[in-house]
Amino acid sequence: SSSGPKREVKTTCPYCGVGCGVIATVAATGAVTVRGDADHPANRGRLCSKGSALADTLVPDGRLLHPEIDGQRVSWDEALDAVARRFSDTIARHGPDSVAFYVSGQLLTEDYYVANKLMKGFIGSANIDTNSRLCMASSVVGHKRGLGADAVPGTYEDFECADLVVLVGSNLAWCHPVLNQRLLAARAERGTRIVVVDPRRTDCVDAADRHLALKAGTDALLFNGLLAYLDSNGHRDAGFVAAHAEGVDEALAAARADAPDIATVARRCGLDEAEVAAFYAEFAATDRVVTVYSQGVNQSSQGSDTVNAILNVHFLTGRIGHPGCGPFSVTGQPNAMGGREVGGLANQLAAHMGFTATEVDRVGRFWNAPRVAAKPGLKAVDLFRAIEAGTVKAVWIMATNPAVSMPDAGRVRRALERCETVVVSDCIRDTDTGRFAHIRLPARGWSEKDGTVTNSDRTISRQRAFKDGEGEARADWWIVTQVARRMGFADAFPYESAAELFREHAALSAFENGGTRAFDIGALGGLDDAGYDALAPFPWPWRADAKPQKRLFGDGRFFTDDGRALLLPVTAKPLPRSVPDGALLLNTGRLRDQWHTMTRTGLSARLSAHAPEPRLDIHPADAAARGLVDGGLARITTLAGEALARVRVTDAQGEGTVFLPMHWTERFTGACVIGRLVDDEAVDPLSGQPDLKRMPATVAPW
Ligand code: SF4
């Protein structure tokens, strides 16, 4: 009853990379309510529509309740033995690179850590990649090249003390709503100006001073033009550049060749000369500028270069390391960052280390591991191609739904169909991917599991359990630990709690670090269980000999070998796929009230009311030219596949482009699976991130 004892548990929202603190109140009846945590630095009490509806999603509907082999209920022992045996057999017959894990930004850092340790340290392959490949990989490359490490320089407070915020390929209003609320509150208080660079007129534009509705894929050119403009008009911070930056001449030469004047930029970006000139002048005249970028930049075949084109302008003008300044990547997923910290990407080893001989040796000694992978593994697109080709014969998919979300989902489905062993760990039984599983393992979900996540401004927060696992569901770290023991690695996998894993992860981050590597949370290597349980949100790095650091690079020292920021020469590239006559460019993305493939948000009637079905947004002129009417049905055809969706005619959609949300699956509607429409041919050569936003599509009445 309401007068009975209740418990309050502090945890973290499992949706987006803002990483809001949540207080869950559990009544004596077991009923749960949630509210924002006023003490959490990410949200200070705020929640968005998705976070507010979290309690609605804590229902048993659709859950995978017990392990299954070939659709039959089995015991945990039988299931774990089968996974270990099938992986061990495959490795014995075909070598370590014949197996793979495909994991998720929904996993907690401890889950990620142990999966990475098993694959890279003990199986001896680096074939573990994550759906963060579809989310952040281009920013990782851009950060490493420019800053010397995958480290977001600023903090959320910078949104509040900037005078100009430039949103590039980021629908912050829908995809990072609480951060957008913080920005709008600051704007109301101090008149922050906002510029939106996006082919669509998103909700962000309502509060913006300027909307540059550029042609899809021309953002690198816009920033090359800005770099050239700033230098030519006397806005170089000569002191900063001389002391702290490298590569300025090369970057400027490339920018000038690409974008010699504003007229050229305007023409190629499809913008008015006057609006480009006004944006450049405003950027030049404002000291405190934060440039925020997200999937519009990352999910591109030149995503890495675009990130560097953005970093370049901040380096040239010294707008980094100070309050209200800097480039700022906002991550899509709740723990895309935590996963990267422990080596969730196939091209990273652990604790932000790569595959140099020194790093392989260092990690091998720390883990006391027999066969640390010595080279990067397969990135997501290549991984599923290798499964299709039969070179990878066993895959374990954790907490993600690649049969929907990967480009060329048809290929992913063919690959899983022919794969000898498909293991799927998930909370939900009937996902599009789960249908291909030989072995299903029930995982605990949000509210049932313990661990940590890292948000977009490097803040590490606890997710805490406040409910029992549904059915026989177990934590992902526990499942991986049990399989590792059964594969013969019991000594190296003694874990009985998430806290033990966190301590080991923290210790590895500081092992032979000497202050030379960016990621270091060595101060927490000795945390006891009670300390882990009580851990308050903190930003990394947090070295044993220093305080945690909120804003990086204030001293002008970067993580590159010579300590200097590196400007990269960038040349804007044309669209990666040829566009047939009459085709439109299909852009894909999120809606405000849904999350990923709707396995959780789809359970909330309140959330589903915002958009009951997928709609194809199309400009009135494009609709009229094709005989499409608002509310009618359209057939969307690409080289990869076909879909059906209801049409919404809106001039918010740029001419020549259409937009479809990414969330719907065959589980919810058989007719609109986004991954079936986008091919996997256009991929950033450096980051391996697929281009999910510019697929040529023919649209016609159904
Ligand atoms: Fe959750 Fe993101 Fe909303 Fe915060 S902004 S409540 S992290 S979905």
List keywords for this structure.
Dimethylsulfoxide Reductase, domain 2, 26 strands, Phosphorylase Kinase, domain 1, 6-stranded mixed barrel, binds iron/sulfur cluster, 7-stranded mixed β-sheet, 4 domains, alpha/beta, Rossmann fold, about 30% helix, about 700 residues
Report what the structure shows:
By secondary structure, the protein is of the alpha/beta class. Helices cover 32% and strands 17% of the residues. The protein is globular and about 70 Å long. The chain binds iron/sulfur cluster. Iron/sulfur cluster binds at residues 13, 15-16, 18-20, 43, 47-48, 50-51, 176-178. It comes from Azospirillum palustre. GO terms for molecular function: 4 iron, 4 sulfur cluster binding; metal ion binding; molybdopterin cofactor binding; oxidoreductase activity. This is Nitrate reductase.
Strand order of the largest sheet: 5-4-16-15-14-6-7
- Which CATH architecture of the largest domain is right? 3-Layer(aba) Sandwich
Binned, the helix content reads: 25-40%
Evaluate the radius of gyration: 24 Å
Report the CATH C-level class of the largest domain. Alpha Beta
The overall pLDDT average reads 94
Low-confidence stretches: none
Associated small molecules: iron/sulfur cluster
**What amount of the residues lies in strands?**
15-25%
- Choose one word for the global shape: globular
User: What structural class do the secondary elements suggest?
Assistant: alpha/beta
Question: Helix and strand layout, with pairings?
Answer:
Elements: E1 7-12, E2 21-26, E3 32-36, H1 49-52, E4 68-69, E5 72-73, H2 76-94, E6 99-103, H3 109-123, E7 128-130, H4 137-147, H5 157-161, E8 164-168, H6 172-175, H7 177-190, E9 193-197, E10 210-212, H8 219-232, H9 238-244, E11 245-246, H10 248-258, H11 262-269, H12 273-285, E12 289-293, H13 295-298, H14 303-316, E13 326-329, H15 336-341, H16 357-367, H17 380-389, E14 394-398, H18 402-405, H19 409-418, E15 421-426, E16 439-442, E17 451-454, E18 459-463, H20 476-489, H21 498-510, H22 529-534, E19 538-539, E20 565-566, E21 584-589, H23 605-608, E22 615-618, H24 620-625, E23 633-637, E24 642-649, E25 657-661, E26 695-701
